[in-house]
Amino acid sequence: MFQPEWESMDRKDLRRLQSERLRKVVERVYHRVPFYRQRFDEAGITPEDIRGVEDLHRLPFTRKADLREQYPFGLFAVDLKQVIRIHASSGTKGKPTVVGYTRKDIEHWADVCARAIVASGGQPGDVLHNAYGYGLFTGGLGLHYGGERLGMTVVPVSGGNRSRQVTLIQDFRPRGICGTPSFVLSLAEAMIEAGKNPRDTSLKYGIFGAEAWSEEMRRTLEETWDIDAIDIYGLSEVIGPGVSIECREAKDGLHIAEDHFLPEVIDPETGEPLPEGEFGELVFTSLTKEANPVIRYRTGDIAALYTEPCRCGRTHVRMSRIKGRIDDMLVIRGVNVFPSEVEQVVLGMEEVAPHYQLVVSKEGVMDKLVLEVELSETFVRHLGPSFSLEHESCGKLSFRLRAKLKDVLGVTTEVVLREPRTIPRSEGKAVRVIDRRNPVKMKG
């Protein structure tokens, strides 16, 4: 562990610490952020009413729309002169969401990212190939500072330019790599195209996040690169990457840095807290953020929480892997469908490659769901000169995929097989869903 005194705290001591920090952050936002003072007053709550974690449910929620409406600095709890860094979302739905960091915020962020890297198998002296995007996006700089805090040599390569990245991996010999799973998988593809075997590199572990991914994707990454593939979670509204991380020992849930972030899971419809182990919307309250702490921020991510001990020795609560997002959930003929469920099916079949898109449209008044997926090059080579998309084997494969998807999703899905390397590759987050039912609506 990077900070064992915090990461393995007795849970009673941790709860006391959380309660103390919660009282302080509630006091700060009430007196320094007009938005929160108004929300508290509307709810009939004063800081004195919040005695500890047991009163968390009494506090009002914060939503992404609130951050946009308070653009740019309306949620800051400090004077702008104390803010040394600003990050922001892409703003695909209008105004971006803006977050600020004091010097202490940056130190805390570096600490939790260093914890995450150690949990993944990183250690001082490692070379870390950081393929997350730099700039206003929090991914690249968060893990960059965490790596430096740990004492690593960080290569800030960012995203894009796959051929250069392949060269740097071969020449700089990193032990760790960070990036979105889809992009790092495409790096392996570029390496194979160059006649190199990804399993022969110096890489031992990968830290993957910024998009939902499945256990099947983990197996694909680990088999392709011969590494441990570790899931990391974070969001800029709370701090960035480092909110939670899997441990290399168990890979069974992501340890939340509970001394900094207080988690809940709620029913997304009613807002009521859900019991341990039940899936719902993930909610976070900042406990140590100075510049712009958030109170009960609704992430839109679907997960569950677990408190049972982990064999790695960390005592902080674990969250499940993200099942999906509320706004990414597709409702197809009344059935809830998550792209991650489709990915499990795709990656479980060796005849197809891990590159796919879901296309949703209307056929009359009915929803139509189509999976477009590439054939694997191994499958195409096996068919030899007789290969065509009309080959009998392709027809049988398409039938098997449709049947499997029906079993898993509960809805009929058409399957369109594509030749290798015909689905667009992403430089960052993979575009998995194209929803043509309402072309004006844009997903953030």
From TrEMBL:
InterPro entries documented for this protein: Adenylate-forming_Reductase (IPR051414), AMP-bd_C_sf (IPR045851), AMP-dep_Lig_C (IPR028154), AMP-dep_synth/lig_dom (IPR000873), ANL_N_sf (IPR042099), PA_CoA_ligase (IPR011880)
Keyword GTP-binding: no
The entry's keywords: Ligase, Nucleotide-binding
Pathway the protein contributes to: Aromatic compound metabolism; phenylacetate degradation
EC class name: ligase
Protein's UniProt keywords contain Nucleotide-binding: yes
Domain of life: Bacteria
Domain AMP-dependent synthetase/ligase stretches: 79-284
Family: Belongs to the phenylacetyl-CoA ligase family.
Function comment: Catalyzes the activation of phenylacetic acid (PA) to phenylacetyl-CoA (PA-CoA).
Protein name in the entry: Phenylacetate-coenzyme A ligase
Native source organism of the sequence: Planifilum fulgidum
Lineage per the UniProt record: Bacteria, Bacillati, Bacillota, Bacilli, Bacillales
